[in-house]
Structures are given as C-alpha cells and as structure tokens.
Amino acid sequence: MKIGIAGAGVLGRLLAWQLGSAGHAVTVFDPALGPGWSADTTLARAAGFTAAGMLSPLAELECANVAVAGLGWRTLALWPARLAELAALGRRTGDTELSTIEAAFSQLGSLLVAHGGDRGSAQRLLALIAAKVPDRVPRALDAAALAQTEPALARSLLAWQLDGEGHIHTVAVLAALARGAAQLGVNFVWGRSVQDVQPGRIDAEAFDWVFDVRGTGARPDLPVRGVRGEVFWLHAPGVLLQRPLRLLHPRHRVYMVPRPGERIVIGASEIESEDRSVVSLRTTVELLAAAHSVIPELSEARVIWSEANLRPALPDNLPLRETRDGLVRINGLFRHGWLIGPALVEQALAALSL
Ligand SMILES: Cc1cc2nc3c(=O)[nH]c(=O)nc-3n(C[C@H](O)[C@H](O)[C@H](O)COP(=O)(O)OP(=O)(O)OC[C@H]3O[C@@H](n4cnc5c(N)ncnc54)[C@H](O)[C@@H]3O)c2cc1C
C-alpha cells in the first residue's frame, strides 16, 4: 500500500515505524526541519518532544475517563514491544542509538505524594480512582516504606504507590522512531506544512491510505485547540529519583520524571491558551517551589531548560479516532499522547488490516 502521513509527532512516527515494518511504502510530511529535538523554540515542534513522559493511567483518571485508562494499560504493554523492535533493528544494523533504546522505558510504578495540609486533595483523588477502578487502588506507603522506595523524598510526605505505572524518555523515543523508520525506507519530507488532507490525498499527492495526525495543525478539519503546558529540565547531580511522582497540589498537577544524565523533568502547567512563548514567572515560581518542597536536595539543581508547548485537545478533552474510505484521523490526545498513542495506533491499523 502507498501510505501518506501528515504529521510526525508521537502518532505520526509510531505509524511510520509500524507501517514501514509491515512493508508499506510510507511518506511522512511535517513542517519541522528535521527529526531531532532542537533548542530553537520558534520552530515547529511536536508536543511529544515537550512531554515529560508520565505513563500514568491511574493518576490521570483525575482528568480522563476509564476508556483512556484502558488504552493506557494497553500502551504500557506495547511500548516495550515497540522499543524491542527498534532495538532489534539497531542490533542488526550496528546502530547503538537504536540498540540501546529499551532503556528509555521504565515501569517501576509511580508515586502520588502530598503534604499533610493537602490531605484533602489527596483523598479526593484516591476516592475518585477507587470509584472508577476499584481493582487497582493505590497502596499507602508509611515513612519507612517511602524512604526505602525513594530516599530523596521529604520524610514528612504522605505517599501512595501506583503499581504498574511507568515513564518514557520522550525525546529519545521520538528520535529513535524516526531513525528506525527511515532505515526501513520510510520517506520523511521535512519542512513541509500540509495544507489539504482528503481521503486518499495529501495536497496534490495520491495515496491508498492517508493518516491525518497533525495535532493542533489539523484545524479547520477538526475543532482542535492547543492547551499550553510548561516544563523545566533540571540537572540534579546526586539526587536519586527512580520513578515518576506526582504531587497532589491544590492548584497544579505537578509531576517529576527522571531522565538519564542526572536530570529530572518538572511539569506541567495547564493553561487554556495557545501562547507558545517562554515560561512565565508564575509557573516557574509555583512548579519549582512545589518540586523543591518534595525533594529538598533539589535546591542546588540547575535549571538547564524550560519550554512551553501546546497539547492538542478536542472540546471534550477526549481522543478521537475516525476512519473514512482512504482517510484516518487521530487527534485530541491532550495530556495522554504517550500514554495512549500506541494503543490507538494498534486499533487503527487492526481496523484497516494494515
Ligand atoms: C507540557 C506537556 C507535557 C506533557 N506530558 C505528557 C505526559 O507526561 N504523558 C503523556 O502521555 N502525554 C503528555 N503530553 C501530551 C503529549 O505530548 C501529546 O498528547 C502528544 O504529543 C500528541 O501527539 P500527536 O502526535 O497527536 O501530536 P504532536 O506530538 O503535537 O505532533 C503533531 C505533529 O504534526 C505536525 N504538524 C502540524 N501541522 C502540520 C501540517 N500542516 N502539516 C504536517 N504536519 C503538521 C507538527 O509539527 C507535529 O510534528 C504532554 C504535552 C505537553 C505540551
């Protein structure tokens, strides 16, 4: 089959990798100038690069439904499979960037933590999780168990462990998916903003199947909007954090995700705005103060990067997957592209027997 993909974010690259692996002739169009992460924030940048990479079906029930959580559990099984395929290609071709990519995924569970004064926020979320998914109730950790699980965390915190959750190194995996797909012969057309997506056609070029995965770029075909999120990268030598954690905060959804190289990603604001300009003072003060209150040792960490990007969201904040003859649209992944992308792609390809 001749397949065209508009958009090379999380969805576009997953599709390219899987369709290329299945032997189809795949072309991907994206306005970005290349496959990699760039420090130039004025350039087109997939939201997937900015994402911290929490894979948190339970904790996200605060702002998602049980169907999204179900896609999340499925995805937690799919990421290791996708990364193992990429690693196998890397071993065949001697490409160490690919052959080591399985280390980009980790599934040690995640932690929910709260300060004593925010016990109310914590209990509200725990009750919500218990009501929506009674068979996966978070486990309370006492101070000794918390110290054993994540020694860097403040001893006074209330804490719960969410078994089975994980995290993924988003920047590394986006690069690996594009690199692997290109090695399979997928044609990436960078620097190309698609103007018109129709069944069987992207701009003037005909395809057997077309995938529209342009995120916020899919307007006006879909009523998608961007929801601003800001993140910080810290370099924190000597501060050990092994699993993602979320601070139950009365105003923010603050999370911290470990990255290789003694880095920690702190995120994220959620603001109804399409402003992609640099992070605000308010978000900086509030998120970083919250992070420091959880891990006091972060006081000497260095803020090495900060950026803002837009989560693609539909009016109901739920994902959309629709298929017409010759055209599949997937969009509205909102806060959950990494959490649910692979499961949605699996469903889309199974429905088309591709
Ligand atoms: C701050 C922040 C934190 C996040 N944290 C998490 C997290 O921890 N866990 C999680 O699961 N998700 C998280 N997300 C959400 C996740 O990043 C998104 O849901 C995901 O990136 C959506 O994937 P996508 O492929 O639909 O869109 P994108 O990743 O945005 O990709 C869309 C692509 O389409 C391209 N495009 C746009 N217009 C055109 C055009 N005209 N022609 C061709 N191509 C076009 C863009 O350049 C881009 O490459 C976060 C997002 C943000 C912003």
Description of the molecule:
The chain has 354 residues and is an alpha+beta fold. The chain folds into two domains: 2-89 and 168-223 and 315-352, FAD/NAD(P)-binding domain; 104-166 and 226-313, 2-Layer Sandwich (D-Amino Acid Oxidase, Chain A, domain 2). Helix content is 32%, strand content 27%. The protein has nine helices and 20 strands. The chain has helices at residues 10-21, 47-50, 66-93, 96-99, 119-132, 143-149, 170-183, 281-294, 337-352; strands at residues 2-6, 25-30, 54-55, 105-106, 110-114, 139-141, 158-162, 166-168, 187-190, 197-198, 201-202, 205-206, 209-212, 225-235, 245-248, 253-259, 263-267, 302-313, 320-324, 327-331. It has an eight-stranded mixed β-sheet with strand order 6-7-5-15-16-17-14-18. The chain has a six-stranded mixed β-sheet with strand order 9-2-1-13-20-19, covered by helices on one side. Strands 3-8-4 form a three-stranded antiparallel β-sheet, with helices on one face. Helix 1 runs parallel beside helix 7 (170-183). It starts with a strand and ends with a helix. The structure holds flavin-adenine dinucleotide.
